[in-house]
Amino acid sequence: MPMLKDPSIKYRKFPSMNLPNRQWPSKSLDKAPRWLATDLRDGNQSLPDPMSVAEKELYFAKLVEIGYKEIEVAFPSASQIDFDFTRSVVAKAPDDVWVQVLSPCREELIRRTIESLKGAKKAIVHLYLATSECFRRIVFGMSEDESVQLAVRCTKLVRSLTKEDPSNAGTEWQYEFSPETFSDTSPEFVVRICEAVKNAWGPSEDNKIIFNLPATVEMSTPNVYADQIEYFCTNISERNKICVSVHPHNDRGCAVAASELAQLAGADRVEGCLFGNGERTGNVDLVTLALNLYTQGVSPNVDFSDIISVIKVVEQCNKIPVPDRAPYGGQLVVSAFSGSHQDAIKKGFNDREEIVKAATDSGEISTPDAVKWQLPYLPLDPKDIGRTYEAVIRVNSQSGKGGAAWIILTQLGLDLPRGLQIAFSKIVQREAEVVGRELKGSEIEALFRKEYISNGFVLKEYDIVRVDEQSRKFVGSVEFDGREIMLSGVGNGPISSFTDALSNGFGVKVEVWDYKEHAIGQGSNVRASTFIEIRVDGKEKRWGVGIHEDVVQASILSILSSFAAFL
Ligand SMILES: CC(=O)SCCNC(=O)CCNC(=O)[C@H](O)C(C)(C)COP(=O)(O)OP(=O)(O)OC[C@H]1O[C@@H](n2cnc3c(N)ncnc32)[C@H](O)[C@@H]1OP(=O)(O)O
Ligand SMILES: CC(C)C(=O)C(=O)O
């Protein structure tokens, strides 16, 4: 039995914190944190095939374009690639971007790390040392005191090689210390070691020390992590000289929630990777965090207007696909296949169009974006991240009438009447079942044209004349199957005179059952689209569609389309 009936004999429950006066539950997120993108370090170190220098350059440029101002670019002491890349970034980074690098608390590696930053405009040196009992015992064999001494010694070394070294005066320095495995470390010990590191570095209000408190392994529910962060924020001294950073991993799948609650608990900065790449289950996903803020009306200070190009770079450099269901970015995220979702979304877009039009006409708004977003099933306007509305509604055998109707509306500009939607939906569903897959927009359009627009008729010369107040006469001819057929009929209007003419010409009884029309386009380009449902000799009714500059001719074409199917 691989899984235990009673897992408590093997696994410990993570203890919750006794923090009766916790404040974070009643706070809300109303501003973006400082972001640190660690794709090129934590993300890169977890890849089966780490990035080449060219890939790192491409990725770095994308992070800058998105708007990240603090980027952890490498572990320079790890490899020549990381060292060389750091050198190239130092030479090229924009003036407002902080270049961050990581090193363990080992003297020779710290020296090499700082060497890689020579000449940087803005640099953050980041040291880490695991502080949990588990790591101190198993990995280092170190007591708490020994850990504190090592952290202090290495911090002093960084200080002497950076801000105290006159040859490095041209660089603006920040220092970050991570008590690695924070999430599993006694909160009291974290405060103790960070106090000692703070004294060794000597931060100021203008040049804060960054204490990064990682959930190196996510061990608890996010509320416990938030408690740990709040405990640190309220117990560390000189909080005004400290930037509290968080670095959640996603082992329990809660990294986004953990980051958000940690910010409520006092964190000022968040470290993560685009689309959550990183060790094991990944670092927290920076895209989700940013767009979670955005969809609450809070500017994230980073720009995902062109999410498709971001995904392209991430996939190319990581060589790992971004899942189709990744929050916000995944390519299926703004797509609805199922009938009731499509119906609601289609109604939502119609509703929004009406509200926007009314508000624009009344001069209330100058841009459609000033109307608050409220659309069933879509928390984010897909166009804000560069997705098109065409991608929103997709059609397979689970789709209802709204899906195909939306495709026809967006591709042909035809707003199908309800009856025609229902009829067309059956045809689309049958086809989707036959091919056993999603139908592309072009396939749906082709089905529609074949069913409702094309017909074997050529309409030749015709005339509709007024006989008297109540009646009109249709006289003309059509070509069908290589034959010319003369048509003549009388009715109380153009449509009934034409159906009478068809009935006479083909020896059948044509009845009009339903009629709808609307204009397509505007100004001199306006055309009429006419939807007419007819019945011939009492058989099953059929819809036809006609499009023409002249509304009467559009009706005639529409009737011919459906009539052809009865022959
Ligand atoms: C949570 C994180 O993501 S931490 C960042 C992890 N990233 C990486 O490790 C990527 C780059 N790393 C490397 O290239 C290599 O590990 C190097 C260059 C840093 C070191 O290589 P090596 O000297 O061969 O050591 P190795 O890889 O075996 O590392 C383990 C050693 O580092 C020690 N160590 C681990 N973390 C730390 C730390 N934060 N500070 C000081 N020493 C540390 C271990 O105790 C162990 O020491 P030991 O050999 O005396 O037992
Ligand atoms: C180095 C630290 C911040 C880290 O990557 C982690 O704890 O996950």
Structure report:
This protein is α/β, with parallel strands linked by helices and 567 residues long. The protein contains 17 helices and 14 strands. It folds into 3 domains: 31-301, TIM Barrel (Alpha-Beta Barrel), CATH 3.20.20.70; 339-453, no CATH class; 457-565, Double Stranded RNA Binding Domain (2-Layer Sandwich), CATH 3.30.160. Helix 6 packs parallel to helix 7 (187-201), helix 12 packs across helix 13 (401-412) and helix 16 packs parallel to helix 17 (551-564). The radius of gyration is 34 Å and the shape is elongated. Bound molecules: acetyl coenzyme *A and 3-methyl-2-oxobutanoic acid (KIV). The site of acetyl coenzyme *A has 15 residues, from helix 1, strand 4 and helix 5.
Q: Quick one: biggest sheet?
A: 8 strands, parallel
CATH topology of the largest domain: TIM Barrel
Low-pLDDT runs of 5+ residues are: none
Ligands (ions, cofactors included): acetyl coenzyme *A, 3-methyl-2-oxobutanoic acid
- Helix/strand-derived category reads alpha/beta
Number of domains: 3
Strand order of the largest sheet: 1-8-7-6-5-4-3-2
Q: What is the subunit organization of this protein?
A: single chain
The percent range for strand residues is 15-25%
Given this structure, which CATH class of the largest domain is correct? Alpha Beta
How many beta strands in the DSSP annotation? Answer: 14
Distance between the termini: 69 Å
Supply Rg.
Answer: 34 Å
At the fourth level of CATH, the homologous superfamily of the largest domain is: Aldolase class I
Mean pLDDT, all residues: 96
Rough shape? elongated
Helix content: 25-40%
CATH architecture of the largest domain: Alpha-Beta Barrel
Number of separate helices: 17
Cofactor: a divalent metal cation
Domain Pyruvate carboxyltransferase: 33-308
GO cellular component, one term: mitochondrion
Catalytic activity: 3-methyl-2-oxobutanoate + acetyl-CoA + H2O = (2S)-2-isopropylmalate + CoA + H(+)
